[in-house]
Amino acid sequence: MKQRIEEAKKILLDNRKNGYTLPTNNKLYPAQWNWDSAFIALGYSYFNLDYALEEMETLLAGQWDDGMIPHILFHDDDTTYFPNHTTWKCGKNIPSSGITQPPVIASILKIILGNQEINEGHNNRVVQIIKKIKKYHDWFIKFRDPNKTGLISILHPWESGYDNSPIWDVPMSNINVDKELHYQRRDLEVSNSDERPLKKDYDRYITIRDQFREVNYDPNKLYNISVFNVVDVGFNAIFLKASKDLLKISKSFDLDFQDLNEFISLNEKRLLGLFSEENNNFLSQDLKTNNNLNIPSITNYFTLFADLNDDKINKKLIANLKNHNSDEKYFFSSIDPKHETFNEKRYWRGPVWINCNWLVYQGLKNKDKEYSNLLKKRTIELIEEKGFHEYYSCKNGNVMGANNFSWSASLYLDLVLEN
Ligand code: GLC
Question: What is the mean pLDDT of the chain?
Fold first, then answer.
């Protein structure tokens, strides 16, 4: 175990650039990603608090004036990634993408503050970080729920972080692909094509992006014009938990964020309303067609992370979770292997992802200690046996995607070193 701890630290340090950390050391992702950076900060906090804070500060330096934190920041001129900054054509101080990613940063900061002593020197930095995160949450509430429903929307599958999940299959199938698309993917040059999204997915990703670029990513327009508008269960669960955590942290720093209370209550109520007794599952919603999206995705269990105030539903969730991929040796598969959309290798359509296990583990800890310990043990074993990869097969643990993957290293450190 010792050896893997040192290896994990080395991966983070080797992937570190000027104030931020790449998701991996191979050529797949040559920039800073939003939720990757949050997870990465947690790993650093166990051996270098400065790096942890700096990771977040660098991400927040790319925050737009309206409050959005982009899903990618392109800190250098590298154009080997597609789509790179020359095609997004936006960003405030730092060239960026024009969409966001799961706002897990407040929850990560809360864990770091709970574990580490913050000295005078760090105090001011932390306050600045918290204020920027608050602006980010206000942005979600204002622009991603303009009709004040209590649920926030994502407007692009990339915003979810689980890019080609089957949750998006139906909403994506309704999108007419732009006929004039000219682009060249770069991911297939460094990854196996059967482990990556399909061309038909990419065509649609780019079609939506081009639509946003045409209106200059104006947040007042995107919600209504976007051909993709989904209320995703996992994303709302992360947002709800992060809002609760932000409110808690703000109190320790004498900041008054009481205005968050109203959205938190409504968000929780409406999220609970997405539980379907009939399907015994949470259902995401396609706002373009008003249809429910019933896919047995591990991301639906992020509702455990949200600490919903409903014991009956939490118990049901845990019972379902125990059946999610009970027939396989490695858990959790991103999609239930018994479902028709499951694919052992294709990215977010089946493989095991360490960040999903980690989020579910956080949610289980205060609800089913025994099972949470089992999940922790199995996740640690998977990494110790196979190494720090991007994703793994649930059938045999075979490794896929990038190696030396930063969030796998970082979250391993948290699992092994947490109190
Ligand atoms: C992929 C993943 C996304 C992640 C990024 C960088 O796009 O789908 O969740 O943030 O790679 O690791």
Answer: 96
